[in-house]
Every structure is written in structure tokens, then in C-alpha cells.
Amino acid sequence: MKTALLTGIRKMEIRDVPRPESPGPGRVLLKTRMVGICGSDLHYYTEGRIGGQSVAYPFRMGHECVAEVMTAPGGQSRLKSGDRVAVDPAVSCSRCNQCKAGRPHTCLNLKFMGAPGQMPGALAEYFTMPVENCYPFGGEISLQAAVMAEPLSIAIHAFRLLNDPFIRTVGILGSGPIGLCVLSESLNESSRSVFVTDLADYRIEAALRMGASWGGNPDRMDVSGEVLKREPDGLDAVFECCGDEEALDQGIVMLKPGGKLVVVGIPAADRVRLDIHALRRKEISVIHARRQNGCMQPAIERVRRDPALWEGLVTHLFALEDSGRAFETAARRSDGVIKAVIVSN
Question: What is the pLDDT of residue 76?
Fold first, then answer.
């Protein structure tokens, strides 16, 4: 089968590798249909690492994926051959103290698709996964919409971490795919004022079309000051979705005393600095969001409710053989890209 491999910094190659012959007990053989390029994939592509995780080449990326069931094991009713599924890329052990505490996303033995030393990614024609990681979706949802379910699940989880029904004003710093998913979740079944920022004007425009109250580019204005002109008391919550230290500083300024800073983005650096005195004086809670926890099915239901919205965020489609151009387009944010998706036929 064909697979797309990262063979060096900003170097992708298409190679032939053996197709998985048997999925094994409790696992399903899947034919890849679409794979979204995530910000974490771009860290591997441009830097070869995230934090302490370094790539050993050749390396197969990809975890935001939808696939078709080829061979499903007997004795279960969840899946059948021909089903189209969205895939939860995190395989937990179900035995450790984190799993037993209802935190499989921080499983002590977690294996994640497309993560160094853990599991191969989905950038291949076929792969296998446990049955419980596969979520069927009906024919009314297109593949192009369904591929957004996994990033949307991260936004749902991040918003759940607030655990506060009285959040009325929200900032989102970074309006890429995850930021736009957080925007959608912020506006879900609630009337909130949402303020967004990004370095790319076309992404701010996308956020405004989705319902953001205001958008600004920090390269051209004091975004914290502009937000506080509109909300003098400060914001209830800010989601940092770009992995940038400066954005963390902006979020701290935007927040009201007692506000919540939710860190969703992945910084390129191993360490970032925070204004500890501003955090202390305003008694700001800093919350880190780690992927998602039990949010895949709710994400699919949200996609089902408005599939056209999610299709619209998939701006670029590339063949598997053109994975190099796909990653370069996403890394450079060129050609108005929001979500680049690789298609395997």
C-alpha cells in the first residue's frame, strides 16, 4: 500500500509498505478516506519535534481521520463492513488509575496515532484501530464534514473544562481550525460575545462569518486594549489556541479578575513565561486542555446538525501522493488555507 512519510524537516516521500494483513482481536481494518493536517503535525513537519517528543525518520503522521471499515471482528455490533467512521486517535489501556478515574485521555499507557514512539499515523491507504475507537456516522454527513469531528471534539472538551454556566464573554486567540472549533462551541446553544484574534486576516473574516463579535490582528493593533474598550470589565474566559507566548500575555490582560485562561495551543518552545504577578493579582485560573475526553460522539452530532459549516472549513483537498504540497500549504498558511485535508482513494 502507499503511505506518506516524513523523512526530514519539511520533506515528505511516498513509499510502498506492506498492507496490514490481519487487524487482530478487537481491532478493525480500515481504509483511509480523509486525513486532516493538525497543528501538531505541522510541528513535526517544520521542527521534527514537540516538546520532548522527537521524530525518528521515516515517520508517518496523521490522526484527524475518517475511514471505511474493511474487516470488522465478529461478536460485536458496533461496526460492520462498509461503515464510514470517524476515528478517535488515542488508544488507552482502560486499566491504569487515570483510565479508572474517567481520564482515558491522560492514560499512563496511552498510544496516540502519528506520535513519535507510539502508533503510526493515518497517512496510508490502510490502518487498524480498536473497535471502540471508531465512531460510525450516517450517510447524511459527508467525509469532508466528518473529518472535522476530531478537532471539534478538542474544542468541546476545552469548553467543558470551564465547568461554568455563567461564561458570557470569551476571547479566542488564534483563529485556525481549532480556534474556529472553539468559536463554534462558544456559540453553541448560548448567547455569548466572542472576541477573536489571528495574524491572518482571512481567518478573522471566517470567524466573523461564523458569528464572532469582533476580530483583530495583533500585528496591527493592541488587541487586548481593543477588547477592553468593548468589555471594560474584562472577559470571563480566554482560549489560547495558537501556542504563542505573546498570546498568553494578551489573554491575561483581557481577562477580568477571577477569569479563566484555557491553554489549548501547543507552543513550539519547551518553556514559556507567564506574568505570574498579573495572574496572582487577578486570581486567574490557568487550565490546560489535553486533547479530548469522551467528546467524539457529541462532536459527530454537532457536525450532523450543520454539516455545511464544517465542510466550509475544509478549504483545501490534496491527494495522498501530493502530501508534501499539502503540508507546505498548511505550514505557510498560503492560498487562504484553513483546514488542509489529504484524500486517499
Answer: 84
Are residues 289 and 154 in contact, defined by beta-carbon separation less than 8 angstroms? yes
- Rounded to an integer, what distance in angstroms lies between the CA atom of residue 180 and that of residue 237? 16
> How many CB atoms lie under 10 A from the CB of residue 71?
16
Q: Are 189 and 255 a contacting pair, CB within 8 Å?
A: no
Residue 163: what residue type? N
C-alpha grid cell, residue 205: 473574516
- The structural domains of the chain, ordered by start, are 2-151+292-343 (3.90.180.10), 162-288 (3.40.50.720)
> Under 8 Å CB-to-CB from 181, ≥6 apart: which residues?
148, 151, 152, 154, 155
The overall average pLDDT reported for the chain is 96
Helix (H) or strand (E) holding 128: strand 126-130
Q: pLDDT at position 268, please? A: 82
Instruction: For residue 184, give Cα distances in angstroms to 1, 134, 144, 224.
Output: 37, 24, 17, 22
Which residue stretches of the chain are H helix? 39-47, 97-100, 143-146, 149-160, 177-187, 201-210, 223-230, 245-254, 276-281, 296-305, 307-313, 323-332
Q: Which residues of the chain have pLDDT under 50?
A: none
In sequence order, what DSSP letters do the residues of 270-322 get, joined into one string?
S-----HHHHHHTT-EEEE--S-SS-HHHHHHHHHH-HHHHHHHEEEEEEGGG
3-state secondary structure (DSSP) of residue 13:
strand
Strand-pair partners of 233? none
Residues 6+ apart with CB under 8 A from 203: 175, 176, 179, 180, 338
- Which residue is it, cell 498558511? 333
H or E element: which one contains 70? strand 64-71
Partners of 16 in beta bridges:
2
Do residues 114 and 37 lie in contact, with contact meaning Cβ atoms separated by under 8 Å?
A: no
